[in-house]
Amino acid sequence: MANNHTSEISFKVELDENRVPEKIHWSAADGGVTDQESKAALISVWDPKGKEALRIDLWTKDMPVEEMKVFFYQTLQGMAGTYKRATNDDKMADTMLDFVDYFADKTGIK
Question: Could you tell me which residues come within 8 angstroms of residue 43 by beta carbon, excluding any fewer than 6 positions away?
Fold first, then answer.
């Protein structure tokens, strides 16, 4: 019988009186992360039954807009790399990276 291992990633979101996130903390013990503070999180999971992506998008009310732009830029870059590794579709991954460069240019990131 195989010895299965379970790993847990957890998020704790502190809300203000209007239920707007003030603080986001996350932990991933297997990754050596304990109670790491963050200003934003974009979480996507695949629902195989409904065949759709489900998302949780959070950011604190004090997340600066300029940092949000960089966060999206880096997230889009990462998604292109993940897409390439998951599908071996170099052409589409390169097209996605072209958009990432366009995004950076239009938002003034680079």
Answer: 11, 55, 56, 57, 58
